[in-house]
């Protein structure tokens, strides 16, 4: 196995690569970990050589602080030569193995499996050399899986069962319950498109499910269960209701962006009567964010009550997440349903109660609806991480050029839906004429485009924030 | 147009890339040259930044000459960080444009056209910055066109005319004279395979033509004109008689190697009765090499005659390229056909005579056959450049793992065949069991594997070389 790695200077024989990948599959997780660590540490770059070249480089640039003028072709040639060598020296030795595997039949698939293993190791342990290896492998995979190399495939009921079984296995958003369910998702009024790579035949790397509808759907129930579908010629809207990646080893490589763009172009061409391209998307991070916000703010509120405002504990003013009327309504029901010193604590207790009991009471639902929707709009439009939307699905669609259109109450009543986002789902809309402009402004300034309707949820909050009672 | 280049820091809008490529097509060669030069010089790397990072790097490595031990995770992390930054700083800015174009519909094709232009500019002028740009673009294209991303397509008479027209247009080895000729090359007893890339649909990047024969063909005439072909079930040999690249902009990127390997695997699988995989190949550099050898050696021979052997002119002993009996036979015919002070000068004059007159005389042919075949074997087996076979086609097949099997007299009587290689063609043979071993030894030591038959042409020469008379 080590011969595949160590044969860095010469052509590697195919059989060695075969042995390497077969050997890798046959060993335990612990031995894979050891092998990958050895690869990361022993087949890294040659730092002595880098230092040598760096000295040469400084020698050529001499004392001048400036780059050579355009006329100094001779000096320029020296720069190019040393830069080329330096660039080469900065490539870890294991890149050669990756490159060779990529050219080897089955090698690309093998590399995605290798990366999936690496990702699970570094999720457990922070090993810098393995992280460095991962970032190299990720970059390489990103290059090899460039959209230009991917084929858009319209997946139908006529496709081989071996391909369709992948769809069933990897549908990550709305699990496919049986063959009938799958058949409906590929039938009239529905489309499913996948990206195939020539080196990984019969297995879409990512696929998207589309429903052809009269209007932008508000709930996933109507997408998964509308029976019978409307005639396709009456559809105005192509609704993307699920997008799933099949390869854990391709995490962080955005294939979906190009898939969506190509699907829009294709649908537009085949069905010019379709003018709306929208999604019905989960909000996977909403409740997690809300719970941590409720917990911390509820504590702060208690601190504020018990301490003087001149206290130097370092906490800024606590913020009541609720409007006064919401706070009152929540406290009114607290006696019957859940205890709590304030509205936030009550909400926290309700949301963490077993079996999502809150969702089964009409009374609770009517009280919680307004604050949960409003805070969801705030989460989607205002909560950021490094200048980008905190919610991963929001960030995905916004960077692709979508806008936030509408949030929908009780749009996904499945256990997962209630758990992730209190059953709320969101429609992102792709407006053809704005996609590029929106992607651009989100990319450069983090600006999130949103409809007036959803913006209204958060704008009242812009008045001076109410402190805790 | 410049906006596509200068928007390096942000996402580029598709329409800008469209404008860029359309703009490029509309401008003159001279303006393209100016644009490419600007790209190479003004969008190069930032050398101030490189120098800055280099200083940081030397700071981290400090006085120690050694790399950090495996335990210094902290130091290692600093190394990784600066190395990553340095790697990034060493990327010229124009790489971002290439990467973006690659993801853009039609962009990959556009880049191959761009590179074809660059190659024709640097063939005329040696501009270092443009050469540097070319080597970056070549590397990128090589990555994007990795064999894993290419689809092997069996080209048949049922393919669209728009694809078949490309075969006719780009067949570089044995031009296709008419539709009937094309149909025969795709019909019974023949195969044609091409590599397609998803981003350049309907246009094979490279294709190979195969004849299914009883024996390894000796002449191209029998391949192109055998009528009718033998039943495929009786074939023992798959003969590769033509391999052509359609994209001048992909020069230097070896797609043929993988194509041949995949075609062998495919033919072997579909027709297990085929046991011999061979080529019938041109020897494009033979006569050019021979003429320059004849000219220089003929002059040396004259010098040696007129000067003393202690002379310090720096010339080593001249070498008569001919065996004594060949020399005699050539001088015997020189009176009738061509003048010359010695055999080499006579041969030089014969080979450079107009309309290849020498090939029309049976008498001349019988005299020239032995020395031309012998010198051809020497050219193929012994003449090297940087340790590799001097002949480009020989180098191509040898690096793919073939061996030199046989040379054939009057195997291509076309004007081109006579001009390039005095009508001689060569069979390279791919022996499945040796392909990898041969490729390996050629790669590492330049060793050329050859049959005993062809080796016999050159081994007598290993006796102490005869000096000029």
UniProtKB/TrEMBL annotation, chains A, B:
InterPro entries linked: Malonyl_CoA_deC, Malonyl_CoA_deC_C, Malonyl_CoA_deC_C_sf, MCD_N, MCD_N_sf
Domain annotation Malonyl-CoA decarboxylase C-terminal: ranges: 149-430
Source organism, top-level taxon: Eukaryota
Pfam families per record: MCD (PF05292), MCD_N (PF17408)
GO CC annotation terms, alphabetical: mitochondrial matrix; peroxisomal matrix
Domain Malonyl-CoA decarboxylase N-terminal span(s) in chain numbering: 81-144
MF GO annotations: malonyl-CoA decarboxylase activity
Signal sequence bounds: none
Biological process, per Gene Ontology: acetyl-CoA biosynthetic process; fatty acid biosynthetic process; malonyl-CoA catabolic process
Protein name: Malonyl-CoA decarboxylase
Species whose genome carries this gene: Dipteronia sinensis
Species lineage: Eukaryota, Viridiplantae, Streptophyta, Embryophyta, Tracheophyta
């Amino acid at each position: 196995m080590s011969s595949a790695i160590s044969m860095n200077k010469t052509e590697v024989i195919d059989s060695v690569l075969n042995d390497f990948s077969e050997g890798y599959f046959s060993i335990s997780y612990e031995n894979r970990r050891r092998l990958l660590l050895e690869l990361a540490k022993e087949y890294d770059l040659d730092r002595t050589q880098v230092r040598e070249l760096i000295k040469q480089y400084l020698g050529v640039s001499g004392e001048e602080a400036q780059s050579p003028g355009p006329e100094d072709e001779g000096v320029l040639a020296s720069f190019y030569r040393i830069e080329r060598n330096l660039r080469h020296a900065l490539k870890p030795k294991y890149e050669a193995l990756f490159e060779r595997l990529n050219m080897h039949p089955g090698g690309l698939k093998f590399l995605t499996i290798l990366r999936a293993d690496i990702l699970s190791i570094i999720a457990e342990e922070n090993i810098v050399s393995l992280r460095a290896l991962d970032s190299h492998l990720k970059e390489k995979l990103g290059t090899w899986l460039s959209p230009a190399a991917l084929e858009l495939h319209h997946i139908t009921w006529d496709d081989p069962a071996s391909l369709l079984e992948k769809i069933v296995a990897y549908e990550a958003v709305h699990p496919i319950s049986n063959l009938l369910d799958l058949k409906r998702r590929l039938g009239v009024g529905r489309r499913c498109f996948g990206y195939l790579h020539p080196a990984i035949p019969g297995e879409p790397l990512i696929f998207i499910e589309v429903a052809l509808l009269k209007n932008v759907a508000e709930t996933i129930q109507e997408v998964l269960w509308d029976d019978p579908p409307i005639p396709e010629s009456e559809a105005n809207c192509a609704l993307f209701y699920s997008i799933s990646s099949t390869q854990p080893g391709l995490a962080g490589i955005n294939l979906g962006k190009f898939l969506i763009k190509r699907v829009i172009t294709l649908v537009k061409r085949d069905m010019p009567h379709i003018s709306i391209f929208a999604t019905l998307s989960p909000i996977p991070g909403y409740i997690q964010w809300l719970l941590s916000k409720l917990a911390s703010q509820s504590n702060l509120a208690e601190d504020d009550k018990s301490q003087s405002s001149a206290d130097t504990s370092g906490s800024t003013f606590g913020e009541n997440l609720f409007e006064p009327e919401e706070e009152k309504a929540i406290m009114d029901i607290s006696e019957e349903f859940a205890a709590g010193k304030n509205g936030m604590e009550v909400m926290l207790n309700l949301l963490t109660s077993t079996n999502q009991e809150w969702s089964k009471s009409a009374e609770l639902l009517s009280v919680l609806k307004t604050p949960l929707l409003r805070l969801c709009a705030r989460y989607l439009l205002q909560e950021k991480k490094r200048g980008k939307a905190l919610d991963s699905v929001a960030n995905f669609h916004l960077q692709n050029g979508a806008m936030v259109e509408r949030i929908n109450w009780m749009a996904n009543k499945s256990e997962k839906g209630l758990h992730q986002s209190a059953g709320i789902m969101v429609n992102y809309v792709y407006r053809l004429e704005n996609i590029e402009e929106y992607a651009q402004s989100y990319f450069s300034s983090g600006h999130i485009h949103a409809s007036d309707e959803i913006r209204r949820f958060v704008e009242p909050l812009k008045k001076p924030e109410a402190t805790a009672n």
